[in-house]
Design goal:
The protein is built from twelve helices and 17 strands. The protein is an alpha/beta fold and 404 residues long. The strands form four sheets. Strands 1, 2, 3, 4, 5, 6, 7, 8, 9 and 12 form a ten-stranded mixed beta sheet that branches. It has a three-stranded antiparallel beta sheet with strand order 14-15-17, with no helix packed on it. A hairpin with a 3-residue loop joins β3 and β4.
């Protein structure tokens, strides 16, 4: 049964959008800083300010020279409706917690972008009735925080919904028009070929609406990638897709292309080290790409032995590192030399593999507690499942129990 959501009218959308220009100039009541250069917004790594054991932004800034943060994620309310919330639960309109984080960053000369969407939860493009009401919801975020930048993270399952993507792209265009100077990035899934069918449909939707953001970024991880070479190959292929879709030459396509990586161990067990980040950074800068970012600062620290058993974590990277190692690649992309006085990391103990359970079968039915092995890992079923590949989704029916 389809549930209808109450959204702001198109007239309200126009009113709020018109207010956006003044918001960018004057900032929020808490005092938005003068905008940073676009290069900083292009380099801003993702930070969850309310979840995944948020690190102290001021500490990161002092340790790395980082100035910009990509705060995630703004969603529709979990209970339904067309109003912005943090993570589906905390209304933007009454927020003070995220505002405090932003105030801290700005007091130190930095700034933030806000990312909408992400993998989980209900997106405003799905909940709102049209592009105008979707834009009106996002304008509330821009106005409250005095934003100079915003990121549209369009991925599963939203980007499989053509109406939702039409709303999101339409909203992005409205915000771009009504907030002069707003830096807009669009982030979507990456594949070895650049991006998949739904990503290409999203690009075609942007073309049909005459919308060009500062960049279209892909996330080349969780898709069978293996180190930097596979990622730069995907970026090369994505460049060709941008050329053919928008009739751009190669240089113009690179100038509108971005990279969004995942530091350390990915959701599907791929590993991306500091050396991989350096290789992709060299590729991005040598091709004059517009964006270099990663998910996430919450993970930019070494796991303790107790929680580093070859599993993906939202609060650490599962690779040997100093705290904030990966943030320094963003700083380099912004054109700044980060500090070098960091201690030598303590090597992370290599977990001892356990024996593998019975191999997973696509035809078998599994219930809560059943254990299988797949891709050299053991997995435990969280609930009833059949023909759902272990590890295909962080929020899927399988819990990773580590290498075997």
């Amino acid at each position: 049964m389809r549930r209808l959501h109450a959204c702001l009218s198109a007239a309200a959308a126009v009113t709020l959008a018109a207010a956006g220009t003044a918001a960018l100039a004057a900032g929020s009541a808490s005092g938005a800083t003068t905008a940073l250069s676009n290069r900083w917004y292009a380099a801003a790594p993702y930070l969850m300010p309310l979840d995944n054991d948020p690190p102290d932004a001021a500490t990161i800034m002092d340790a790395t020279g980082l100035k910009a943060f990509q705060l995630a994620f703004v969603l529709a309310p979990n209970g339904g409706g067309c109003s912005p919330t943090w993570g589906g639960t905390a209304a933007v309109s009454s927020d003070t917690a995220v505002q405090a984080v932003i105030d801290t960053i700005r007091a130190k000369g930095g700034d933030v972008s806000v990312s909408i969407g992400g993998y989980g939860g209900t997106k405003l493009g799905q909940a709102c009735s049209d592009a105008a009401s979707t834009a009106a919801a996002y304008q509330q975020v821009i106005t409250k925080y005095g934003l100079h930048a915003i990121d549209f993270d369009l991925e599963e399952p939203e980007y499989e919904n053509s109406a939702a993507i039409r709303n999101e792209i339409g909203a992005a265009k409205i915000l771009q028009q009504n907030n002069p100077g707003l830096y807009v990035s669009v982030t979507t899934a990456g594949t070895a070929d650049g991006t998949g069918w739904f990503g290409k449909q999203m690009l075609l939707e942007a073309k049909s609406q005459g919308f060009t953001p500062n960049n279209f970024s892909i996330m080349p991880f969780d898709g069978g990638f293996n180190g930097a070479a596979s990622q730069t190959g995907a970026l090369t292929n994505f460049n060709s897709i941008l050329q053919s879709t928008f009739s751009w030459d190669q240089a113009t396509a690179y100038a509108h292309e971005g990279f969004s990586g995942m530091n350390g161990r990915s959701d599907t067990g791929e590993y991306f080290t500091q050396a991989d980040f350096q290789t992709v950074l060299d590729y991005a800068t040598s091709h004059n790409m517009d964006r270099f970012t990663f998910w996430s600062l919450n993970r930019d620290r070494q796991c303790t032995p107790a929680d580093n058993g070859g599993r993906t974590s939202g609060t650490c990277s599962s690779v040997t590192q100093n705290s904030w190692d990966f943030a320094k690649y963003s700083v380099k992309f912004a054109g700044v030399t980060p500090p070098t006085n960091t201690p030598t990391p303590t090597p992370t103990p290599t977990p001892t593999p356990t024996s593998c359970k019975t191999a997973w079968s696509s035809t078998a039915v599994y219930t809560s507690g059943n254990e299988v092995s797949y891709n050299k890992h053991n997995w435990k079923a969280k609930w009833w499942t059949q023909n759902e590949v272990p590890g295909a989704s962080e929020w899927g029916p399988w819990q990773d129990e580590g290498a075997c």
